[in-house]
Amino acid sequence: MGGLTVNFDAKLLGERIFWDPATDTLTIKGTPPNLRDQLQRRVSEK
């Protein structure tokens, strides 16, 4: 399994970035265009 790196401004926590400690889930609302492009490219490769 590969690594994962996530960077964001602390002020986004609770605004666009949400962490649920009960499920240890991180949710991003409104993904940045560069991340969205990377995700779309990966999905289309499969």
Automatic annotation (TrEMBL):
Instruction: Name the Gene Ontology molecular function terms of this record.
Output: double-stranded DNA binding; single-stranded RNA binding
Family stated for the protein in its record = Belongs to the YejK family.
Q: Where in the cell is it found?
A: Cytoplasm, Nucleoid
Keywords, in A-Z order: Cytoplasm
Q: What is its main location?
A: cytoplasm
Q: Could you identify this protein by its name? A: Nucleoid-associated protein NdpA
Q: Which Pfam families match?
A: NA37 (PF04245)
InterPro entries given for it?
A: Nucleoid_associated_NdpA
Please provide, in alphabetical order, the Gene Ontology terms of the cellular component aspect for this entry. bacterial nucleoid
